[in-house]
Amino acid sequence: MAHIRTVGVIGSGIMGSGLAEVAARAEYDVIVRSRTQAGADAVFHSIDAGLTKQVAKERLTDDERQAILARITVTDDVHRLAGCDLVIESVVEDMEVKRELFEKLDRIVQPEAIIATNTSTLAVVELAMATERPAQVCGIHFFNPAPMMKLVEVIRPLTASDETIEAAVGFATACGKDAVLVQDRAGFVVNALLFPYLNNAIRMWEQGTASMDDIDTAMTGGCNFPMGPFALLDLVGLDTSLAILDALYDEFRDPNYAAAPVLRRMVAAGQLGRKTKHGFRTY
Ligand SMILES: NC(=O)c1ccc[n+]([C@@H]2O[C@H](COP(=O)([O-])OP(=O)(O)OC[C@H]3O[C@@H](n4cnc5c(N)ncnc54)[C@H](O)[C@@H]3O)[C@@H](O)[C@H]2O)c1
Q1: Which of 104, 208, 209, 232 is deepest in the core (most CB within 10 A)?
Q2: Which residues are catalytic?
Q3: What is the pLDDT of residues 87-96, one digit of tens each?
């Protein structure tokens, strides 16, 4: 496998944009692909806006900001990813959508390249088997917000080669992250442990044990967590949170993973958290 120089990112949501910034900061050339040019341009502008704030706070010089932006290309044309050494998919948490995308990427991206997924819970092996290069598919799971969070879970499906996993760990490390190796089980380490807690916080609120604000205050003050469960659910996105719980429940049938009904109703109502400015709280 060739040395990683150019990284493709598919998806222009919270994570796609964060991933592109992280890779460009680590001096990779980055090509971000969104389904629309407007979506792709929005990624570029949101990264620029974030970097400009960093310059104002004197955490970055303006020359550094310009150098990072110069490494990022945005496009609506998936064929522009053909020459990438690594492509990370970060679209909606839906197996059918991701599987189709992997089939397509496999036909487009050079055969030596690694194709990775940023899925939070889905079976990476299913995406690997949608390609003709299952040994070169793995999970590279960043956390939100990607530029700030130190952890990356590198997910090893049964099909991945040692070289692929080594390259994925090398990439995460070059991005300044701490990589942990995890087998391909729903939720990996972090979400398998985190989501029963988040789900039970919703149930506790529904049962009237305490108000949403008091539950958040209890968990920040009592456990030293940086934010409470409702603030975190709104940050993650309620649609993504529901998809994660459904995938965990599908795999393990543990009642702690059975999504609280109100979460499903809020997603049906389009109340998805910060990204729609309305979730458990209004933004
Ligand atoms: N939100 C988090 O905290 C978090 C953390 C780590 C990993 N992830 C994972 O990252 C991935 C993206 O999540 P996000 O939070 O950025 O979501 P998001 O809702 O912010 O963005 C989703 C992206 O998918 C695109 N999309 C939607 N439907 C599509 C389709 N049918 N075909 C192609 N693209 C489509 C959207 O245009 C958007 O660019 C998911 O797999 C999620 O599980 C999310």
Answers
A1: 232
A2: 120, 141, 153, 191
A3: 999 999 999 9
